[in-house]
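User: Sequence in, structure out. Go.
Assistant: Echoing your sequence, followed by the structure tokens.
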Amino acid sequence: METVNSTQSLRRASLKGLVFIAAGLLLLGWLLNTPAGILGKADAVGYAVCHRIDVRSFHIGDRALPLCARCSGMFLGAALGLAFQSIFFPRRTGTPPWYILVILALFVAAFAVDGLNSYLHLFENAPNVYEPQNWSRLVTGTGMGITISVGMYLAFNQTVWKGWDQRPAIHGWVPLAGLIFLAGIMNLLVLSENSFVLYPLALISAGSVLVLLTMIYTMVLIMLFRRENTYERFQSVLFPLLGGFIIALLQVAATDYLRFLLTGTWGGFPIG
């Protein structure tokens, strides 16, 4: 029996070692084949999920951020929402009250309306409700990001943890107002277009893309291997998270490769 257990432990350790090696090689290959510099790597992440149209982006000097104004708002809002819930309401899994869901639904509706209006503006004779602006893209994107963070936080906690708190994280007006207040400050910082502020926010927005994709694929892996609700500590979920990260990076790398083949440039789409 001890020999069998030792063999199984050795196999698990070997498998983990191979996964770590694969992750390292994949990351190294991606780093070597993407634009130079930290912002260059952030651009490569944004390149996989965003059109990166220059006039629809905020800038650090003459350099567009890794994500357009709408995507910057969405992924910064998601990062803020996940951090807010994790810090103040750890492992909560309850559905928010109906009135909070109504507010979140309004965020989604505003995102859809502003996005459709902005899209129609690309066509010369298409009807427009109003002149699209980067500030409205940022604000509606942030609202969508907050909504995504609420759903993602709930789903991740319900999938991963053995012991969870069944109360909702955004349980009333006070936490929602606090989150919206912080999001407002964040948006004002983005709108200032101060390079010292935008630089870290640019990296956070790109990092948020990888975080969200990693969370999604981690949940998928946990469900595929039927390991739902078996993790008690963060350290024990590191291996599934690594697997999720590998798949997330593969998706980003594959999308980068296909887009570069089609466009021949790391820049955004050349339309206004």
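User: And one key feature?
Assistant: The radius of gyration is 21 Å.
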